[in-house]
Amino acid sequence: MKISTDIGVWIGALSALGIYSVLIKDNPFYTMVEHIFVGASAGIAVVVGINTFLNSAWSPMIEGKYLLIIPILLGILLYSRYFEDIAWLNRIPLSFLMGTGAGVAMRGAVESQIVGQISATMVKLTTFDSWIIFLGTIFSLSYFFLTFQRGKVTGVTSQLGRHFMMAAFGAAFGNTVMGRISAAIGRFQFIFLKWLGLG
Amino acid sequence: MDIFDKLQNLDKRVFYLLMALAIAIPTIHPIGLPVEITESVREVYEFVESLPEGSIVVIGFDYEPGDEIDLNPIAQAIFHQLASKHIRIVTIASFPAGPTFADECLEILEEYGYEYGVDYVNLGYYAGGEPTLAAFAQNPATVFPKDWHGNSISTLPLMQEVKSMKDFSMAMTLNDGPTGGTGTHEWVRQAVMAYGTPLIMGVTGVLAASNEPYVQSGQCKGILAGLRAAAEYEKLTGKIGTGTVGMDAQSIAHLLIVGFVLLGNIAMLVSKIKEPKDRSGHAGGEPR
Fold first, then answer.
1. Is B271 in contact with B8 (CB distance < 8 Å)?
2. Which candidate in A30, A59, A180, A182 is best for mutational testing of the B interface (most B CBs within 10 A)?
3. CATH 3.40.50 fits B39-240, yes or no
4. For residue range A21-78, what is the model confidence (pLDDT) as tens digits?
């Protein structure tokens, strides 16, 4: 056993223990660590934000890329919402952000998320997996036929579609559990191996 | 109250304690449970093996500290393989903590004699999500005039060879979801659909199922999901790291969960059978 002498490791380990202490019951140690976490996260975000602004906009602008004044001014306009008289000005950069965001996303969305995915279900039905993909898609889609009364056939297919979706949710939940356990493993490795020097 | 009722009303802190032990014991004393390599992980490995020596790849560190344990081991395992083929690496990040993780993982490149600026570069954090990724894909210098360490991009020899996303022989995103950063869908749109750059994903377990359709459609070359994929990849590269160390704890914790799910359901069924039935024949009693 070789306990770490790094102050950062100590702070990390004690904070982790503080967060885990809520599993026993709510307590001041947990609340304190939670507040420190929120404050530290906000602080880091501010520093990173300022650095990003300086590196990506301010420095290049004063080095000669004067057109960057336009996005800088648009960025400043976002803060106009805090002043009632000129709050409407913040709609200009917001509209710009929404417009560019939507435009950029549309660039590949149709092909990647609609055409590509539909093509992927048009598979040669030679393997068990391909049958699962084919039937799973048809049955799941039939579950969402809501514009007409379900008959005998569509009733069965929509019910099967529901089961296919349940299986998908189960797989997603299993992966979620795995992810949460991994997070705990990470903290335990940190506490036992890096902080306490066990193992 | 019999044993089945007690099981259904078990204090959750007992479960927490057992879970803590299930993770702590194998962490301190690894058992060395076998790790089988799955087809999906092998496919990613073989794809990376097929990349030309000396080519350049871009890797996005798109995750927050909470998912470090899932994604850092994947990044390190991939870096070992890339370095063994002397493939050059450019990292970017859509979360503020990303560049720190990138630096941490890039450290392993020193053992391969990699030189900063020549063989690898950490460009740092970019704000703005997909539109900024699109701008990076078009011309990296517009988004990153300087790298994470403050060096002008024009002074880095590696970046002189990168004019757009097309110059990367592979893109990879280490991703924990689109909240606050650039998600996997955005990478597919901006790297694969716009420039035809092959993409692989390293994702948290939560995201594996929802991204599988991209592999099915050929838009993504493969997915490495969570700690397990990292352990498998470490086995393939022969460089054992934190992924393998964590798998014993992962397996035992999963066994514990499965055990409790089974016990809980058995207890519920037995209790239902034992409950007195009302006049209509349904199991009665107060609702739980």
1. yes
2. A182
3. yes
4. 999 999 999 999 999 999 998 998 899 889 888 988 898 899 898 999 999 999 999 9
